[in-house]
TrEMBL record:
Principal subcellular localization: membrane
Pfam family, one: MFS_1
Species for this entry: Kribbella steppae
Lineage: Bacteria, Bacillati, Actinomycetota, Actinomycetes, Propionibacteriales
Membrane topology: Multi-pass membrane protein
Domain spans labelled Major facilitator superfamily (MFS) profile: 146-350
Name recorded for this polypeptide: Multidrug efflux pump Tap
Length: 350
């Protein structure tokens, strides 16, 4: 609630300062940075609601994480269209006022509908921030499955950022195509990823996690890079991205449920936040690494190298994680949302 309320004020400052002719580029950057800083704790706090939602609705965790992933992908998919429509009909400044108000609406919805007993089950305020941070890190570091998964997601997030920010746009330009083709390719991925995240929410609790994890990353990872490296026609690239979205749709629901089950309830916030932070570390570097690779070895070799690294990274948890750890992930939560397997321990989403 605090994060969304603060975000309302920070985002509202952008159109306000613009209206007062007091908005230059440096303050705009600062406001965007503050808004990003508020997102971290806000998203982490909301993620801790998932076990309570599963328990209250009496449904498997995969159902909740699947619907959450569907909502997130759908929102990201339609965000640009909504932004464009708002700018067209009400103008840029009013669109930003509406954007700011949306955070306030979220704060009100959480205050109105989140059960009061969730606050009673929140993490106890024990020890200093440094002590709690180290405690969460030790837990994450010692887990034989979660830590390899976190490292893997950090690498794949970097490569996903690289292809979206640099590799795909450069490939489009080199082939004499335009931004519309970039949009079509990414849309083909987004549509199938959204649809199959919904499928995962329906069947996720009845499918083997290790198999789904392996196939999903094999489908959605390296093929996207390889098809461009071999100069396939744009329709083939669209097809590969569309098939890749099928795999991507299953990843977040399965990994999200896995992480939540394995993390003890009283450590969910700190461990999931640490995992998310680690998974995001490569994202700002994706475009820089891609640009340097193209400058150094050329576009096609850079795409092939990225595909190989993606494949190795996504297969590494199968080799590094102990067999017993993967076997334990097949245990499901009971109808009340409590872990039915061994001592709980979790994972951030890709």
């Amino acid at each position: 609630m605090l994060a969304d309320t603060a975000s309302t004020g920070v985002v509202a400052l952008i159109p306000l300062l613009h209206t007062l002719n007091a908005l230059s580029f440096p303050p705009l950057l600062a406001l965007v940075a503050i808004a990003g800083a508020l997102r971290g704790p806000g998203d982490a706090a909301k993620s801790t609601l998932i076990p309570d939602i599963a328990k209250a609705a009496n449904v498997p965790l995969e159902r909740v994480t699947g619907l959450e992933s569907t909502t997130e992908r759908l929102a990201g998919f339609i965000a640009f269209a909504i932004a464009g429509a708002l700018i067209t009909f009400v103008g840029e400044v009013n669109a930003l006022w509406i954007d700011a108000a949306s955070f306030g609406v979220c704060a009100v919805l959480i205050a109105r509908w989140i059960p009061s007993q969730h606050q009673k089950a929140a993490e106890p305020d024990e020890g200093t921030y440094k002590h709690r941070l180290l405690e969460g890190w030790r837990f994450l570091r010692k887990d034989k499955l979660m830590m390899p998964l976190v490292m893997m997601i950090a690498v794949t997030n970097l490569l996903d950022a690289a292809v979206g920010a640099v590799l795909l746009p450069v490939w489009i330009k080199d082939h004499g195509l335009g931004p519309g083709h970039t949009s079509l390719i990414l849309t083909s991925f987004g549509v199938t990823a959204t649809l199959f995240a919904l499928v995962a929410s329906a069947v996720g609790d009845r499918i083997p996690r290790k198999l789904v994890f392996t196939l999903a990353f094999l489908i959605c990872g390296a093929p996207r890079f390889v098809v461009m490296a071999f100069d396939a026609p744009v329709w083939a690239v669209m097809a590969v991205y569309a098939v890749g979205g099928i795999g991507a749709g299953f990843i977040n629901p399965v990994l999200g449920a896995l992480f939540i089950e394995r993390i003890p309830r009283d450590m969910l916030g700190r461990v999931s936040s640490l995992a998310d932070a680690a998974c995001w570390t490569g994202v700002p570097l994706g475009g820089v690494v891609a640009g340097a690779a193209i400058a150094g070895i050329g576009l096609a070799p850079a795409l092939l190298a990225a595909g190989v690294v993606y494949l190795v990274a996504t297969m590494s948890p199968l080799l590094i994680g102990r067999h017993e750890s993967w076997k334990a992930t097949q245990d499901r939560t009971d109808p009340q949302g409590t872990a039915a397997g061994p001592d709980p321990v979790a994972v951030p989403t890709s």
